[in-house]
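Q: I have 191 residues here and want to know how they pack in 3D. Can you give me a structure?
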Amino acid sequence: MVGVIIFLQFFVPPQIQIEEKLIYDTIPQELIYEVEVEVPYEVEVEKIVEVPAQTPLVDTAFILKNFYLKNFVQDTITLSNNQGVIYLFDTISQNNVVARKFTANIKPKIVREPAPEPPKVRNQVYVGLNGALSHQDWVNSLGTSILLKTKDDKIFQLGGGVANRTFDGITGSFTPYVTGGAYWKIRIRKD
């Protein structure tokens, strides 16, 4: 069997298929050719007519004289909202600004802000404790009171409590009391 395989490999030529293709190395292009066509009627052709014109005289000395001449230019700038005017004075020579001066007449800007509103004056109520001490009774009285301060700075007081009274330093009695008062503001100096 080995002999048959060797025989077939060496003596039987392999079959190769060959395809023939034609390859072009050029790219087709469209060419535009001009072709003369006879025109059956006459066409008017414009004629170019040269008209002699006067050439301007170029005076180099005049141009150089103006180039080195100092020109003074004044400009006025008016500010918006009627705030003022600025006057500019320029000196121009050789196409450059050689000197610049200005005069300004400007009004100061006034900013008006409303004054802050003072706080509203209202009635005020206070609550507190009060007491009195003495050498003889130690705690003479204890109480509480309510104060009312009105819009026009008047103060009214209403309160109550107990008063302590000792007879021999040890024994004593508590006596209830009611208190009241009115106060007015005193203006010593005018501000």
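Q: Anything worth noting?
A: The chain has two helices and seven strands. The CA atoms of residues 162 and 176 lie 4 Å apart.
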